[in-house]
Amino acid sequence: MLGFLTARQAGLDDPLRLRRAESTRRVLSLTLNPDRDVDRVHGNGVNAIDIDAVEGRYMLSGGADGVIVIYDLENFSGKPQYTCKAVCTVGRSSRHVHKFSVETVQWYPYDTGMFVSSSFDKTMKVWDTETLKPAEVFEFEDNVYSHHLSPIARKHSLIAVGTKNPKIQLCDLKSGSRIHVLQGHRAEVLAVRWSPRYEHILATASADSKVKVWDVRRASGSVLTLDQHNGDKSKASSEAVNTAHNGRVNGLCFTGDGLHLLTTGTDDRMRLWNSATGENTLVNYGKVCNESRKRLQFTVSRGCSPEFVFVPCGSSVAVYALHTGELVTMLRGHYNNVDCCEFHTDYQELYSGGKDCNILAWVPILRTADVEEESNSAPTRAVGQASVNPAFQDAWSSDED
Amino acid sequence: MNRKRALISDTFKVKKRIRIGTEKFGAVSNGDGPTDIKFTLEYLMTLFPRKLFNDALPQIVLKHQLYSIHHDKTLVDKELNKLRERGEVLMFQLGFDAEAFGLIFASDYKAKVLAAEEGRATRATVERFLEKVLSSSTDLSFSKDQMLREFLFTDSEITQLVKAGVLTVRDAGSWWLSIPNSGKFTKFFLRGRKAVLGMVKKSKYSEVLQAELEERRTTVHVKFHMKYHVHDIVGAELVESIPTTSGTMLRFVDS
């Protein structure tokens, strides 16, 4: 690290490089931290979490009992000890609560005044954060597995919805109607994801082992169908042509720059694809345990070099190097299966939720600063204490009298 | 300048590597340094019991056994593909698991197949197959179309090849490339794997030191060298391998 600092000081490196180095160092030292807790509000498993992109301050979580909670992640107390408080909750007592398990939650990408949740009760609700009432309810014929709003779209405000029906629905927030259907899959659609690079590109993963990439401006069909063998027919058995996995594909995630796409399947594999050509990059991550019947929410780090993938793997979260496929570490802490995780880009923190009803915060633990000489630090510490808590000092002085 | 090319995380790993290095002192080195897949393959081949099959089988190594020695799986795949393209190594689908691939040195395969064909009527066809097909393609399986048009075999010749065992039926109109008489190998291998896994499972806390496992007396089911099986179960991730102060420990993974 000192090397990077001197290189920066001498002007050998650009600022970005130093930033990347520090982010990487922080990600490599992610651990469970006793200083950081997340309020335990959920009484059932946590299915989905999302951190808002505007401030990086509020976190949404959706539970298996239909409850949605908003947490405040920002620590203004000045102490390292912090419990992320639940700011507001759509609880079981609310009139508008989802009847069954909430499968996906997502903030509106440009504003925290609105968020979208979808559930097994066959609805997707668009919520007003201020009043915690749904501003719009989309109803479907089948269970909703997943939905996604494009993080960069400026020309459309479409929500892609994957349901038990093989057709992918596109809902328009402007008109509040379902405007379009994308046909091509043969089984339920478990995950949908917009590209963070091109606003009209959508990737979908289905239980028929296929992953398709769509351009929503084109009505006729998908642009690409990802093939795990890159068209080499001699390896695949004849019925498994053009499949991305040898099982249900239940996780989908673009890298931060949108150039690559990651998929996970119940064949215990994770694959990295070139999202422009649909080519399998053949990175071998080894066995990535995956027994989920539903969507698996995993995430990729941003601003590190090299980038890392965080993927739930049984009751722990596995961290892989994105391009080499090397297992960096396993984050163990949950008591039951982990279903979702989300990376906080600004602070390099990871939040994960699981069937044990907990949301755990993984915070980088860096080497603590060396303690200074007692004589130098004592007066400053006393002043600091007094300014923080004058009531405490009053009580102490009265004791002396 | 060299430092510009180096990955940033490599700088942070330096410290870690030193620590790991001291732990591993005296133990088997686990593939630091340049990856020489061919050397590793040759090492694994030596574990293959040739006597058991009266030296009739070529030495078979499973692809995932390589992963137990080299940790960068992507690199192993890449190096292996290079070897296959150069025609030094052949890959086979072994049939009991879609993910299990067998690796054989091409020269060894050819020698053993020809030795088995000595004095049989099918020899000429098999020889032609080895010459034409194996030298030109790296495919694991062949379709009927490919066999008839590209390699100019007739239907009856294909039947001869299947009889000789260099092809097995995959489904209607396509064949896997295969190893003659490898059924016995698969049988012994699967039985041995089951027995070794059972040994790990039945030890206390379902975990056992690798060195201790390798020293154990084996049952009749384990026909191969213990190390062969250990490399197999570690590579296929049926057990977890954990470095400890007294060597590598294997723990059974529930799945």
From TrEMBL, chain A:
Pfam families: WD40. SMART domains: WD40 (SM00320). It comes from the Eukaryota. WD repeats lie at residues 95-137, 182-217, 242-283, 331-362. Pathway: Protein modification; protein ubiquitination. Keywords: Chromosome, DNA damage, DNA repair, Nucleus, Phosphoprotein, Repeat, Ubl conjugation pathway, WD repeat. The keyword Transferase does not apply. InterPro entries: Rad28/ERCC8/Ckn1/ATCSA-1, WD40/YVTN_repeat-like_dom_sf, WD40_PAC1, WD40_repeat_CS, WD40_repeat_dom_sf, WD40_rpt. Its main location: nucleus. GO terms for cellular component: chromosome; Cul4A-RING E3 ubiquitin ligase complex; nuclear matrix; nucleotide-excision repair complex. Coiled coil: none annotated. It is found in: Chromosome; Nucleus matrix. Gene3D superfamilies: YVTN repeat-like/Quinoprotein amine dehydrogenase. GO terms for biological process: proteasome-mediated ubiquitin-dependent protein catabolic process; protein polyubiquitination; response to light stimulus; transcription-coupled nucleotide-excision repair. Residues 374-401 are annotated as: Disordered. Part of the CSA complex (also named DCX(ERCC8) complex), a DCX E3 ubiquitin-protein ligase complex containing ERCC8, RBX1, DDB1 and CUL4A; the CSA complex interacts with RNA polymerase II; upon UV irradiation it interacts with the COP9 signalosome and preferentially with the hyperphosphorylated form of RNA polymerase II. Interacts with ERCC6/CSB (via CIM motif); promoting recruitment to lesion-stalled RNA polymerase II (Pol II). Interacts with KIAA1530/UVSSA. Interacts with a subunit of RNA polymerase II TFIIH. Substrate-recognition component of the CSA complex, a DCX (DDB1-CUL4-X-box) E3 ubiquitin-protein ligase complex, involved in transcription-coupled nucleotide excision repair (TC-NER), a process during which RNA polymerase II-blocking lesions are rapidly removed from the transcribed strand of active genes. Following recruitment to lesion-stalled RNA polymerase II (Pol II), the CSA complex mediates ubiquitination of Pol II subunit POLR2A/RPB1 at 'Lys-1268', a critical TC-NER checkpoint, governing RNA Pol II stability and initiating DNA damage excision by TFIIH recruitment. PANTHER family: DNA EXCISION REPAIR PROTEIN ERCC-8. This is DNA excision repair protein ERCC-8.
Automatic annotation (TrEMBL), chain B:
One of its GO terms (biological process) is positive regulation of Ras protein signal transduction. Pfam families: Stk19. InterPro entries: STK19-like. It comes from the Eukaryota. Belongs to the STK19 family. This is Serine/threonine kinase 19. It comes from Sparus aurata (Gilthead sea bream). The gene is STK19.
